Amino acid sequence: MAKGLTLDHVAIAKGTDVLLQVDHCIAPGEVLTVMGPSGVGKSTLLSFVTGTLAQDFRATGRVLLDGEDITGLPPHRRKVGILFQDDLLFPHMSVGANLAFGLTGGGSRADRDSRVAAALDEVGLGGFAGRDPATLSGGQKARVSLMRMLLSEPSALLLDEPFSRLDATLRAQVRDMVFARARARGLPVLMVTHDADDAAAAGGQVMQLGRG
Amino acid sequence: MSRRRLLPLLPLLTLLAMLGPVAAGLWGTVLPAFGHLPAAGLTGPSLAPFRELFDWAGLPRAVFLSLSTGLLATMLSLAIVTLVTAGWSGTRAFRVLERLLSPLLSVPHAAAAFGLAFLIAPSGWLSRVVSPELTGWERPPDLLIVQDTWGLTMTAGLVAKEVPFLLLIMLAALGQADARRSVAVAQALGYGRLTGWLKTVFPVVYAQIRPPVYVVLAYSMSVVDVAVILGPNTPPPLSVQIVKLMSDPDLALRLEAAAAALLQLALVIGALGLWRAGEIIVAGLGKRWIAAGGRGRLDTPVAGLALLAGAGAALAVLLGLVVLTIWSFAGFWGYPDSLPDSFTLTNWARHGDGAVEALGETALIAAVAAFVALILTIGCLEAEYRYGLKWSARSVWLLYLPLLVPQTAFLPGLQTLLLGIGADVGRIPVMAAHLVFVLPYVFLSLADPFRAWDRRMGTIAAALGAGPDRVLWQVRLPMLLRPILTALAVGLAVSVGQYLPTLLIGGGRVATLTTEAVALASGGDRRAIAVYGLMQTGAALVPFALALLVPALVWRKRQGLRHG
């Protein structure tokens, strides 16, 4: 089977209402943008892919990641990373501990510490490991959040309105950084947004969801 | 793997721990009430126990007291809390009351009752402060204030303790009622703040606080420790009579006690029905009142009176503690003097050893009951989260059930059952009995913050590769440290304050601060009572202080958790 993230005849319904139907394959390094006004169930699609769909929804179809069917796997075994509009850094952990949380297991402590430090350096936050996340600026938090996700070495990336809380200048900057890193790592990206700029910046296919 | 199989069972186990003893106790009450008590060589069925109960000349009075104190205390507490919230929420005076709430709540009923008695008795502090200058009294006046025939002092004592409880419940309900905007709209339409609140917010809020209001009613009707300390004793309220009969060495009297317990249950059910009818009537009148469109000309005096009553309730408890403190250090203290001649440590030295021993017992029982309750509660809430279980609106009443069935109705039966099966009364059964009352409060305290936790945190953590257990232990529980410790403190305070379960299930052999303090009530040694009452208060209060302090220390470098 093909590399990438495949949504194979996915349909999500609430009661008798079919919210959305998607049948699409996202190749490594490509972005599929799902657009639509709030309330059409865009985020529902993402929770189906992460395996956290609420019980009042019914979903059919399969999710394949690099050819493996992950539809039945528990959320923590899917290797699907996600970013939300809020940074959702764990408030009780330091910046470094947040990054280490996502770091794949193994390695000596010194080795892990240096991987965390390198990740911070990569986004211009060298020396921030001991900081309290609450003291960071919005842009800094977004970067930490991104690196935390990347350190867990996911095979696909989901974005849930990830830039809508950032102001205009920061927004373009963070957006470029996210897409550049996803492309560099060859991650298939599934983004939901209601913002046309985000869709344009993503540069991939755009799927429009609307009220039927 | 075994844990994964255990977790789904926890909600069931919790219900069993909470409702099992209640059901068993009621069963153990029904049998002897109809003359069946093989342990005493009696087999039923027979109506003799009820005949004996109805032959007791004090019964009408005991029943009346149970109803009057319960209904009056509930109505007054609810009225004070409602009117104070209506007239003052959002103001500075209200914030002061809010801040006093936690300490007031944690003062055990018995300690608050003793404090009130020491305050308002003819020889109490208030009388001393104004004598002889204002009153001319050189000796305590011959008035029956404490233990008055009508149970008014007992009612006042209950009000002082139930007002903080209902206020807490009210504040929790307000958070979900969008009260501020409703009142703002009403005020824009020309309504006074109080009338506007009553007409727009109260109907929504009352629907939410109804179960705890019912709990207050059931509790006030059947309370024992407050009744022993402040209530009349010739005859006493029905609940006290039940305990008297149960403590009699003559086993046959247990039959009459069981019959009285069933009567108590019937009274509570009847009073709840009466209250429900009252709700319907008030709702009908309220609709007319709302439709009549009055803007509330009496708002200012009513709000003023309510605040006075609320502050009075708070002061009664706080001043009571002050007087207990003075007595615990008092040397000779002649009547009209406002303060003792000298202060001494003798009282603490004399009663300290016994009190410390009782403190150990109290702490052990409370710690076990509260920890078990906390683990069951977290297990239930986590199971609910992982498996998407949903509580229906009706099943919430299950949580309140152990608090609605009067203690005096099922604990005597539970004791009889335990004796019947040869189980030793003692510490472990007492812990299990405490759990019945601790669990609902711990659950109610933790459920909202636990459910309000941002689920996306869980999604993120799982996406980073953390399994459900790791998410729980490393993310969710640390983030919820403060509400978890608060729930634990609530559980400890509830256990510390328990009188009847300790007395009956402990068979008189488990001595906690509460049972020791209440046992001192009839002796009238104010210094001893003061020492035990203060120790009891401290045992309940210190965990609350720690619940504030520990998260502030642990997370002192984490701003994001400072307001959580």
Report strand % of chain B.
under 5%
Mind describing the biggest β-sheet of chain B? none
CATH architecture classification name of chain B: Orthogonal Bundle
**Helix-strand string of chain B:** HHHHHHHHHHHHHHHHHHHHHHHHH
Give unreliable regions of chain A as ranges. none
How many individual β-strands of chain A?
A: 9
Ends distance of chain B: 33 Å
The secondary-structure element order of chain A is: EEEHEEEHHHEHEHE
The Rg value of chain B, from CA coordinates, equals: 25 Å
CATH homologous superfamily of chain B, by name? MetI-like
- Note the total helix count of chain A: 6
Q: Shape of chain A from CA axes?
A: globular
CATH fold name of chain B: MetI-like fold
Taking the alpha carbons of the first and last residues of chain A, their distance comes to 32 Å
What Rg of chain A is obtained from the alpha carbons, in whole angstroms?
17 Å
Mean pLDDT of chain B: 91
The number of domains of chain B is: 1
What are the low-pLDDT stretches of chain B, counting only 5+ consecutive residues below 50? Answer: none
Protein architecture, described:
The complex is a heterodimer of chains A (212) and B (564). Chain A is α/β, with parallel strands linked by helices. Helix content of chain A is 33%, strand content 25%. Chain A is built from six helices and nine strands; from the N terminus they run E-E-E-H-E-E-E-H-H-H-E-H-E-H-E. Chain A has helices spanning 42-50, 95-102, 109-122, 138-151, 168-184, 196-202, and strands at residues 5-14, 17-26, 31-35, 57-65, 68-69, 80-83, 156-160, 189-193, 205-208. Chain A has a five-stranded parallel sheet, with helices on both faces. In chain A, strands 2-1-4-5 form a four-stranded antiparallel sheet, with helices on one face. In chain A, helix 2 (95-102) runs parallel beside helix 4 (138-151) and helix 4 (138-151) runs parallel beside helix 5 (168-184). The radius of gyration of chain A is 17 Å and the shape is globular. In chain A, 42% of the residues are buried. The model of chain A has no long low-confidence stretch (mean pLDDT 90). By secondary structure, chain B is mainly α. Chain B has one domain (2-22, 60-555): MetI-like (MetI-like fold, Orthogonal Bundle), CATH 1.10.3720.10. In chain B, 74% of the residues lie in helices and 0% in strands. Chain B contains 25 helices and no strands. In chain B, helix 2 (10-33) packs parallel to helix 17 (396-404) and helix 2 (10-33) crosses helix 19. Chain B is globular, with a radius of gyration of 25 Å. The model of chain B has no long low-confidence stretch (mean pLDDT 91). At the A-B interface, strand 6 of A face helix 20 and helix 21 of B.
